[in-house]
Amino acid sequence: MRNDLLLLADSRLPAGGHAHSGGLEPPATSGAVRTVADLADFLHGRLHTAGLAAAALAAAACRHAGNGPDPASWLVLDAEADARDPSPGQRAVARAQGKALLRAARGTWPSPVLDALGDAHRARRTPDGRGPHHPVVLGVAAFAADGSPHDAAAIAAYTAVSGSASAAVRLLGLDPLGVHRALADLSAAVDAVAHEAAGHAEDAWADLPAPSAPVLDGWAELHLLADLRLFES
Amino acid sequence: MGGYHGPDQHHAAPRYGRPLRLGVGGPVGSGKTALTAALCRVLKEELNLAVVTNDIYTTEDADFLRRNAVLDDDRIMAVRTGCCPHTAIRDDISANLDAVEELEDRHGDLELVIVESGGDNLTATFSQGLVDRQIFVLDVSGGDKVPRKGGPGVTSSDLLVINKTDLAPLVGADLAVMDRDSARVREGRPVIFSSIREEPAVPKVADWVRARVHDFRHH
């Protein structure tokens, strides 16, 4: 395992992740997730829906980054990411996180491809648009850090569950050792999702996996209406 | 009390073409928002300024500033910090930088951006990547031992404000002790005692901020 990729996967990368619960805060607040076992179920569901979609987008982005800087094409992949995210609030959050990751990645692994991605999005500032979608940035960042599409998918799948898990420790006071055990128990599933996602790296973008999780989408919208919330998403 | 007239000991490199970024940090309830609001009221006629608030749970602080109309709405942005107010100003400043840059884009000729942290504890301090100068706000009601306990905000902030001095007799806090202990741990960096309730225009703090903005622009 190469050091650059460990840095990219590390939650200490200053890319704004600490302010997001990966969709966990609404079910934690409503009582739908209370225990480590509940959390394990939540993570399993998230991994196979939002996690798979993100991992496939990241793998495709990493693969495409190998073609060199091409600003216009990034907007097409970004539109595919939009199409896989039915919640407007969640899309705005994915773009805010993408913008933060782009800042961190450009500062850490300077690369013309990351610059091209940033330029494409600066040229087109949409109302909810703060930056490119997070998985797209992650794929390009993995490329800039000399990673493969499979590496990009693995990091996306891992962060899809690790972010929610650490939010659970903070929101619910769950035993951190129990939470890490749950993450370890998910390892084979995370690897399998990464493998599956990497297998789509060469697909036409419209054919990338588009699994849906309507409850997560609904919760994401409700979260934005909540008066009291600790996490941005 | 605690006046400091020596050379500025802060070595952050000046960055031209943008406003001074000033952090205001400190424990919950010490008066950060009240101080920020007072500075806005006093300085808005003479300086082009904007504010980023960091709230742990709500947008309470931004709402307070808006309700009290100390600044126009489009000069105030709220950042939510996911359980960790200190992370958002120190370890991972991306959301705050984003807000600061958004305000700077919106108002091209800003001279001062105040970043008010979420209420935290004595370990909170701002990253040099986010702010050029920082004020740490304590209040006397936490007891006169607090400056002695140190922490980066108490020891190293560019200005320590000890607020609510009007409460000192009620809580049995000895201001002379706080002054002596602060001076000992701060190695000459300035301390200002204040009571925003009695002196809403916070003249000494406002003067200190004016001087920092002036230094930054003419460095």
From TrEMBL, chain A:
The lineage of its organism: Bacteria, Bacillati, Actinomycetota, Actinomycetes, Streptosporangiales. This is Urease accessory UreF family protein. Gene3D superfamilies: Urease accessory protein UreF (1.10.4190.10). It comes from the Bacteria. Keywords: Chaperone, Nickel insertion. It comes from Actinocorallia libanotica. Pfam families: UreF.
From TrEMBL, chain B:
It comes from the Bacteria. It is found in: Cytoplasm. Keywords: Chaperone, Cytoplasm, GTP-binding, Nickel insertion, Nucleotide-binding. GTP binds at residues 26-33. Its main location: cytoplasm. Pfam families: cobW. Residues 23-192 form the CobW/HypB/UreG nucleotide-binding domain. Coiled coil: none annotated. The keyword ATP-binding does not apply. InterPro entries: CobW/HypB/UreG_nucleotide-bd, P-loop_NTPase, UreG. Homodimer. UreD, UreF and UreG form a complex that acts as a GTP-hydrolysis-dependent molecular chaperone, activating the urease apoprotein by helping to assemble the nickel containing metallocenter of UreC. The UreE protein probably delivers the nickel. Belongs to the SIMIBI class G3E GTPase family. UreG subfamily. Facilitates the functional incorporation of the urease nickel metallocenter. This process requires GTP hydrolysis, probably effectuated by UreG. This is Urease accessory protein UreG. The gene is ureG_2.
